[in-house]
Every structure is written in structure tokens, then in C-alpha cells.
Amino acid sequence: MDQGKGGKYFIYNKSYEGEVPVGYIPIETEGYQHWLLLRIVGQKADVTANIAKLKKTMKLYPYGTQAKTEFINLTDRQYNTVHAMNEKFFDEINTLIQYEPTEIWNQEWIALAQDLGIEKGKAFAPDERMKSVLVEAAKIATAEARSTYFYPEENMKVYDDRHWFTPLLSGHEFKDEHGVISVDERATFHFMATGITPDMVTNTVGKGSAYLLATRDASDDLLDGGEHYTVTLPKDVPVANFWSFMVYDNQTRSMLETDQKSAGVDGLSDKVRKNADGSVTIHFGPEAPKAGKETGTNNARQGIQRYFQSLWSNGGLV
């Protein structure tokens, strides 16, 4: 919106009756709660300087105040970023419906919530029979979401001879050419991710990105954290900014927690070692690869998922 020049944004709910202050870029919203997701993209040598610049120049505060923006390093902190997969998920839905304005929701969806006893302005207090229904419903919904994720439909696969797939082939709204939403693609994506944006699927040269997932190996077996896997990136992969691999725990749907600081590795890391032909081999396993040979990530002995991301400026992945 500011063409990369930076600027001041005035974010306000549509119920706001005041004036938009002069010099601000207005952003009107329908809901009350918002996320602001930012990513610093640069070269390896620029990372530290870019972080310092962001802290110095970015400010986020209630309009009319001069509150200091506090930046918190979450590297060594434990916190929950995933939604419940049991009956507590319905409590999360109730919290949203109670807090947000009703008009932002799909009205048919709201009607279904009311059938479960979730209604704005009323206490959500299911009786014993309904509690048992919600427990069973959560189990079935979780199993269905897992099945679409670990057994993805053919239309999600990126290659004919490999198991990399993405539910984003039809776009960030998961719609086909007729505007019909694929509920399986949407469920597959949001089973392992919360936020989504059009920028995740843009093909604009210099600003594009690509996201690939894998839950199976070359033999079509589910990935196992106790096994050893490799992925080799050819020399001069067409990514101008960076590529990265992240390993996710298929039980928590969050990044795998091991004795390593990070659950993945990226092209900006000093630990990346190139092979003699310029390619890079990434190792995934419960033990580190032999010293001096390859780049790797540590897996706990449990089910895992691989997630590959790239940002490019000169073309897409091949």
C-alpha cells in the first residue's frame, strides 16, 4: 500500500465515527481483533542490521498515545500457537462469537453454532448429552482433517513423480474457476497453519513465494522421526532471497521441539554446507550427520512433516 516506502497506518473498525487523521493510510476493518504478520527479507549479512532497523522504526500503539512498542524475543519461550483438537475447540469458537460483531460471520455458520448452544450474549453451557456429542464430533473432525493432510488429494500434488504437495494451488481462498470452495484444501491448509494471505500465492517476480509440504517419503511411506531422510537442492536454485525447511510434529501440528535451537534450516544459515557440485543436501534424522559433511535437522522419534518455503525474484521452483 505504501510501495515499500513506509508510512503511518490508521487501523480502525467500521463503527468508528471520528475523522481519519491527516497523513495516515486508512485501513477499515470489520472485526475487533487483528494480527499483523511481518517478515524481514534480506541477505545473510543484513539480518542483524535489519532486525535493529525494524525495532528502531516500527511503532504500534493505540492512536492518541505515545506508548513505547515492546519487542519480545520468543526464541526460548514456550507458548501455544495451535488450536485445540478436542472438545475445547468449541470453547474457542464461543470465545470468538462472544467477542466479535455477529455480522462478520457467515450467517449459515452462525446458525449451525446456535444448534450447538453457542450464541452471542448467552452462556455456552452444554449438558452431559451435548458434551458427549462435542467430544465425539471433535474426534471425527480431527481424524478427517488428518486424513486429508496425510493422504492429500491428487489435485494438491505439485509433481507427478514426487510427494510434495500444497493446498494453495487454487489460491488463498481455495476457490476453483467457478468460485466453489474446496473444503478439503482449506482444512488441509488450516490443519497445520493459522494465518493466510494473498502474498502466499503471488507470482509477482521479485515478490513471489512458494510453499510445499511433504508427509511421505519416496517409497510412499509416512515420514518417521526415527528414520534418516535427505533432500538435495540443485546448484543455483532460483531463489533470490532465501529457501528454508521446517520440521513439524504431526501430533501438535507445531514446529518440532528438539535440543536444537531451531526446528529447521534455511539458506541464510552459516551451517549450510555445499556439496562439490554446488548442490546442498539437507539431512533429517534423530542424530546429526557426520561432521563436515552435510546440513541437517534433528528429529525426535515421532511422526514428522516437512515444510519447504522459498522466496524468489527470478522465477519459481523447478
From TrEMBL:
Start and end residues of each DUF1254 domain: 2-62
Domain of life: Bacteria
Domain DUF1214: 209-293
InterPro entries: DUF1214, DUF1214_C_sf, DUF1254
PANTHER family xrefs: BLL3101 PROTEIN, SIGNAL PEPTIDE PROTEIN
Protein name: DUF1214 domain-containing protein
Species whose genome carries this gene: Vibrio maritimus
